[in-house]
Design goal:
- By secondary structure, this protein is of the alpha+beta class.
- It is 38% helix and 19% strand.
- It contains eight helices and nine strands.
- It has helices at 10-31, 33-36, 43-61, 66-77, 195-211, 235-250, 284-289, 315-352; strands at residues 125-129, 137-143, 146-157, 172-179, 220-230, 258-265, 278-280, 292-298, 304-308.
- It has a five-stranded mixed β-sheet with strand order 1-2-3-5-4, with helices on one face. It has a four-stranded antiparallel β-sheet with strand order 7-6-8-9, sandwiched between helices.
- A hairpin with a 2-residue loop joins strand 2 (137-143) and strand 3 (146-157).
- Helix 1 packs antiparallel against helix 3.
- The longest helix has 38 residues, at 315-352.
- The protein is globular.
- The chain starts with 9 loop residues before the first helix and ends with a helix.
């Protein structure tokens, strides 16, 4: 192995160790190139700083002076860097602001919400149908961080004590809601006697009693079981949407899709701000601070079947909140319709195959 003329004896081993350390440093920098590509970093200056911090002290430490010694030293260690040089590092890319998810030139960043959404944007929705083969109908619906599993049993024949046939000329809708202890911020398990659970139960029963064609199933019972896995706002809307998918999977006829969404206002009741904007699909933090309502519509029109508002709000803001909520219901309906059509396509493909 040919080494520079000035490196002899013990100094030779020390110099070689310093240079090997410098080579390893350059190799580590090569691994970081993919990370630095995302930022306008000057790679040439980074290499110069590394060379000045590792190689130059080594050269001067052993008394290397002049251009000749530096040239011989570079000639010795460059082949051992695996062809790594300043030219191997890519030049920093030119930032392309047109690829940003938000057009900041026409929309102020101050108007973005805590999770980065605009006022009229829904959270991420994940909807699945036929998730449990043992049930007559089942679904999984995820609206942001709120997650619900729904199963439908029935229509099944009603029976009373003594084995006699009971019930009315219409099907009886029953709803059972269970909330996991880890679903919310408060780590507690809510029983059937919980007031909040009872209110949700009554709302669901009244809503689907008017929406489903219950007259087709006299003396029968339709059981809707809902399991809340996570709660981060829009709970009632998520329960209604999950129930709609499960009922469709069970084959129970209804007049049209029943979809729900929440909407709120950026200003509280006590505020006199006139330019308050409505918000769509509130999360848990927003529901704690802002007034909101839950609205549900049938079909693709503006027919409202559910309107629940438990907070105080000025009457002049209700119209805007309701309009935004109805528009959100239409967006949710398109998502549910896509899930149902995809499931139907898979079933037809299975029958043909």
């Amino acid at each position: 192995m040919t080494r520079p003329e000035y490196a002899t004896g013990g100094d030779e081993k020390k110099l070689e160790g310093r240079l090997i350390h410098f080579i390893e440093t350059l190799k580590d920098m090569r691994k970081e190139v993919e990370f630095y590509r995302r930022f306008p970093v000057n790679y040439d200056s980074k290499l110069v700083n590394c060379f000045a911090g590792a190689a130059l002290p080594t050269i001067f430490f052993y008394g290397v002076r002049g251009v000749r010694g530096i040239r011989e030293l570079i000639t010795w260690f460059l082949p051992r860097v695996n062809c790594l040089s300043i030219t191997t590092f890519p030049s920093p890319p030119v930032p392309n602001h047109t690829q940003m998810p938000l057009d900041t030139s026409t929309y102020s960043l101050a108007l973005l919400r805590l999770d980065g959404r605009r006022w009229n944007e829904l959270r991420r929705i994940n909807a699945q149908i036929s998730t449990q083969a043992s049930a007559d109908g089942s679904s999984y619906f995820e609206m942001g961080n709120t997650k619900v599993i729904c199963t439908v049993t029935g229509p099944s024949e009603q029976k009373v004590q003594g084995g006699q046939r009971g019930g009315s000329d219409k099907a009886d809708i029953r709803v059972e809601i269970s909330m996991a202890g880890f679903s919310g911020v408060e780590r507690k398990r809510r029983g059937r006697g919980d007031k909040r659970i009872a209110e949700l139960n009554a709302t669901l029963v009244q809503t689907f009693s008017r929406t489903l064609s219950t007259h087709l199933y006299p003396h029968s019972t339709i059981l809707i079981s809902l399991h809340i896995l996570a709660h981060d706002g829009s709970l009632l809307a998520t329960l209604l949407n999950a129930s709609t998918l499960a009922l469709i999977d069970a084959g129970i006829p209804m007049s049209a899709y029943l979809t729900a969404c929440t909407s709120g206002s950026t200003s509280s009741y006590s505020s006199t701000e006139e330019n308050a904007d409505p918000l769509l699909d509130l999360n848990g933090l927003e529901e704690q601070e802002l007034p909101f309502l839950t609205v549900a519509t049938v079909g693709g029109g503006d027919e409202v079947v559910v309107l629940v508002m438990e907070s105080r709000v000025r009457v002049e803001r209700v119209e805007g909140m309701l309009a935004v909520g109805v528009d959100g219901c239409k967006q949710v309906r398109e998502i549910l319709d896509g899930v149902v059509r995809e499931k139907g396509s898979r079933v037809l493909e299975g029958l043909k195959g």
